[in-house]
Amino acid sequence: MFGDDFLARQRVLVITPHADDETYGCAGTIARIKSLGGEVYVVLATAADLRHFGADDAGNKVKLVSRGTRMGEFEAVMRLLKVDDWDVLLADPEAHLALDVVPRKQLVGLVESKGRLSIDRIEPTMILIPAPSYNQDHEALYRACVTATRPGVPGERHLVPFVLAYDNTSLFWSFDHERFRPNWFVDISRFLDVKIQAMRLHASQVRPPIYHGSPEGLEMATMLRGREVSVEAAEGFAVLRALV
Q: Which Pfam families is this protein grouped with (predicted)?
């Protein structure tokens, strides 16, 4: 039931807190769905200039990555994955890494109806949202998306049949009761190379192989997910709703 025929019929809305979270969590699934003729739309919550850990050309341990750089990388990934359209939810740079102080009502409204690629406008059959974590943006966006996908009176608002939370290589760094436990897997064995290529396109975020979020670390993590269900490579999701 959930093989190629199922995936080919999906109109998917992906909500990503930052440029690269979509790649960590579901780039292979996006690539597989697009290869089958399905639709995929991606909404990036925020992007802004940011100083973060990472060696620069001068050997400093902290580097500045501009919004323009991140957006250029993100656009390249969207082209690689052949998504149908993408958009940025919040243009205000002050919201970057501060979604926890943006009123939830505002976030919900944008995801639900006011954004250019909102649920009301796209009417997705499936929505992929970030799993909650210690990252304040992921946590805030997850809760806003759960609210935005709540059931309503039939005919008054679109009900998304499949609501799934996607993985991230950093989710091992959580309290035990908050650990990510996927219960739905997508075999991306034929698309693992696309996923890793997408990660490398986020060039400003690429780290040495020892780092869990490096392309090498991501490949190992994706192959480990695959071994959990006896395939070469897989992406794991937590099912929040499955209406059939």
A: PIG-L
